[in-house]
Amino acid sequence: MRAAELVAVRRFRIVEGAVGEPGPGQVQVRVRMVGACGSDLHNFAEGGIGDQPVRFPMVLGHEPAGTVLKTGPGVTGWSAGDRAALEASLFCHRCEFCRSGRHNLCLNLRFLSTDEPGFFRELVNLPAENLLPLPANLSLSDATLFEPLSIALHSLKQAPIQQGESAVVFGAGPIGLLTIAALKLLGASRVWAVEPVAARRDLAARVGADAALDPAVADPVRQVLADTGDRGADMVFDCATKGDSINQSLRAARNAGRVVLTGIPSELLTPMEFHVMRRKELTLFNVRRSNRECHEALAMLGEHPGRFLPIVTHVRPLDQIQPAFCMLEQYADGVGKLVIDLS
């Protein structure tokens, strides 16, 4: 079995390994496609994400799709060759947060690619509950979008969009693009995307943004206020959390608006203009991955494939993971979502 291990900052190596037989309740899966997440990029380029350093060597990757090879004792409903999306979170189902339905806050959570090896490897044994059947019209590469779309949908459950409301999305990386697409499908009247990379502004327009603003050219807050008669947007999603984007989000929101922090800052401490938030009586939401939105995400991908088709721009084989991540770090070649092909 081949796997890509991150062994140092900006350095992968391809290694050979082995995997045992699937145990009771497990399914052995041949991993075919894995999307590269922004957190994978943080770990690659910075050696960690937020306050969590990566433990070298580590197999990253937690946006996988693959096919069933074999099943362990007691597993029903899956057969060799079945296509599946693969959920990376292993919950205990016993703690107070699992019992109350807040599985993403599980006290004993094991997350594959952080706590244990992830999916940049050819074979993995998973609990059967971590496999989700794919819609027939969804390719394996596009199916990798289910995990980041689940995060976008979770953010929209934390702070639901009302029909006809407006929204600003800072950052048009994959999470931002998926948030834009979901906002339009769920009834947003106008969506502004704020993104410094030209190719990603183009992608934002293709998935539904009504305006794509370059923050290097003009102040996006002033533009949103000008477009709304100084009112501001009903909702703001910060999917970048870079530079001053958190405070720009506070300034772009209307009085009594909602601000959602979906991105993960690289810094341990992030300055926040508290009094802007206080005077506007804004509601601030934080997002911790997703919470069982995977089925909903797969259904949305299957029902609206044209909306999401532009997001996956690059597919690269496992043995090219090193230059692929270097490309991603530089936002080169118009890259939106990078998918690693293990087929």
Describe this structure in words.
By secondary structure, the protein is α/β, with parallel strands linked by helices. It folds into two domains: 175 residues, Alpha-Beta Complex (Quinone Oxidoreductase, Chain A, domain 1), CATH 3.90.180.10; 138 residues, NAD(P)-binding Rossmann-like Domain (Rossmann fold). It has twelve helices and 19 strands. Strands 3, 6, 7, 10, 11, 18 and 19 form a seven-stranded mixed sheet that branches. It has a six-stranded parallel sheet with strand order 14-13-12-15-16-17, with helices on both faces. Strands 1-2 form a two-stranded antiparallel sheet. The chain is globular.
Structural class: alpha/beta
Number of E-type strands: 19
Total domains: 2
- The helical percent reads 25-40%
The coarse overall form would be globular
Euclidean distance between termini CA atoms: 12 Å
Fourth CATH level, the homologous superfamily of the largest domain: Medium-chain alcohol dehydrogenases, catalytic domain
The main sheet comes to: 7 strands, mixed
CATH topology of the largest domain: Quinone Oxidoreductase, Chain A, domain 1
Which architecture of the largest domain does the CATH hierarchy give at level 2? Alpha-Beta Complex
Low-confidence stretches: none
Rg of Cα set: 20 Å
